[in-house]
Amino acid sequence: MQSNKILAVLRHGEADFNFSNDFERQLNSNGKSQLIKLRELLKRSNLRPEKILSSAAVRTTQTAEIIAEIFDDVTVEFDRTIYEAEPGVILNSIADTDPLVNTLLLVGHNPGVSALVSSIADQGYLSMQPGMLVILEVHVNDWKHLGMGTGIVREVLQ
């Protein structure tokens, strides 16, 4: 029997520019403020991730930590392969998620997260801005089956 899962995809908050080492870029004050506002919206929503899967870059780590503060008992996992990854690589990381997890929050980077959301929803290209959260209802019972056209966009928060 097929069930619906929720995949929430969050592009990291606005970050400072340091081209000497992109991986080490940190959130700037606007990015932190933006995520605190998003966190307040999430407090009033029904979204309760059981797991947060995040790129291991500094700005995504900071983003995941700010958001995770409001969720009790959420598992947070940092995965270096998500950093600047294409959708196929991100899907491989998601596929390792326990099928018992029904709500997953992914924190990543563009262009990968925009391409991922656009592929899953298969409703045209959605360009995600820094700090934008897209909530997808996905029609799979195992994260390994997530792919093109398996979900629909339910909500966009920013």
UniProtKB/TrEMBL annotation:
The record, for PROSITE patterns, names: PG_MUTASE
| SUPFAM superfamilies (alphabetical) | Phosphoglycerate mutase-like
Binding-site positions, substrate: 11-18, 59
User: Do you know which Gene3D superfamilies this protein is assigned to?
Assistant: Phosphoglycerate mutase-like
By its UniProt entry, which Pfam families does this protein fall under? His_Phos_1
Single GO MF descriptor: hydrolase activity
Which UniProt keyword terms apply here? Hydrolase
Listed name of the protein: Phosphohistidine phosphatase
Taxonomy of origin reads: Bacteria, Pseudomonadati, Bacteroidota, Cytophagia, Cytophagales
